[in-house]
Design goal:
Bound molecules: S-adenosylmethionine
Oligomer: single chain
Helix content: 40-55%
CATH architecture of the largest domain: 3-Layer(aba) Sandwich
Order of helices and strands: HEEEHEHEHEHEHHHHEEHEEHEHHEE
Largest sheet: 7 strands, mixed
Strand order of the largest sheet: 5-4-1-6-7-9-8
Number of helices: 13
Distance between the termini: 46 Å
CATH topology of the largest domain: Rossmann fold
Radius of gyration: 23 Å
Amino acid sequence: MIFRWHPDESPPQIEAHSKAKLDVLRSYLRAYLDRLNVNPHREEFKLDLVDGFAGGGTFRDGKGVVSGTPLIMLEESEEARERLNRRRTNPLRFDYKYYFVDKDSAHIDHLKKILDERGYHVDGERIVAVNKRFEEVADDIIAEIRRRQPRAGRSIFLLDQTGFAQVELELVARIFRKLPAAEVILTFAADALINFLEETPSIIKAVAPIALPQARVRELIEQRDGVGGRALAQRTLCDHIRTRTSATYDTPFFIRPRRSRRALWFLHLSRHPTARDVMIQRHWEISNTFEHYGPGDFGMLGWEGLLSKTLPLFHFTGFDAEQLRANLLNSLPEKLFCLVSEHPITVDTMRHMFANKTAARFSDLDETILQLSRERELRILDPDGKVRSHSLRRLRSSDQIALPDTLLLPGFSRRR
Ligand SMILES: C[S@@+](CC[C@H](N)C(=O)[O-])C[C@H]1O[C@@H](n2cnc3c(N)ncnc32)[C@H](O)[C@@H]1O
């Protein structure tokens, strides 16, 4: 969907799938700001927010007007300033900088007009609005973030491209290389790409920005047309994006426009497990808008053998949560057995190993581990190797997971 803005005209009409995207972004920013500021002793919080494909700032929605992504960034960050200081005696200082980029001058003019009407001052210092292609200014933005935050460069890049090839994956990799604490949210027209793939020179050239060599294109075509079908091709594509961008975690929201029915991804990429956990919790909160294939545990999106065109749809509802935990209870022991057979692993490592493979939140994984400990299928050790009680209620990330003294074959004591 191509949107057009002009400062003398009313904004474009929004569609349901774009609205869903805005809801996820708003919900994510709110949870991100809350989660990163739980420490009551923190004095300052710096964050750089980048909207690389910013658009004109608002949409029409029936008779009303709704905020687009640049406004959502401003509104949520300002609201967090107020919300998180409400109960504090020593105020937390928020130091934000915003970068809004769009290649279309009429779109940037519309955005500037909207910002001005709402009392935001585009001063080129705190709020920058640039009429350029994102790829032309990305390196300057990265450098400015590093200047402001030399240690980690805490930042969120929203790259709401149309299609799948406007954002080079190498550029995303550069963001992560230079700014280890960055997160990237990328719109990616996954179904359109999967449908479009053919082994012809023009298509191989068209997919060059996403670093798909001919062999990978062939693999995706075979998966798409084979028994694994779309779900398997999607999984391969998602792994490809994560690897090429050198992100550690990926969390794709599937958004299905009513008109085309072709799934778009709102893909969250990060190198930090907390960021991934905050994002997967959004899936559980905003259930039903999105469609995923698979049972939620290790069969999600066509992982491991469960490949068929009739994978069940996973909707992140209460029922799915129950099913997920029941499935985890059966599948986790076997996976864990491989991991801990040589020596114990920490809870942190366990979360890291499974994060990209299931729809589980850390709380779901932890709860499953605790249940397995209660059932004596494994032991929990503290960081010094001392056995913790089997009736333990909460895990610490530094706790270790170990095999039981008397070894039951993994999952054998469990009825399937
Ligand atoms: C889908 S719209 C953005 C909508 C906006 N994120 C929102 O939801 O409020 C995509 C925008 O990206 C802009 N655009 C397309 N290619 C671009 C590029 N290479 N660099 C920067 N902006 C670009 C278009 O002009 C358009 O305004």
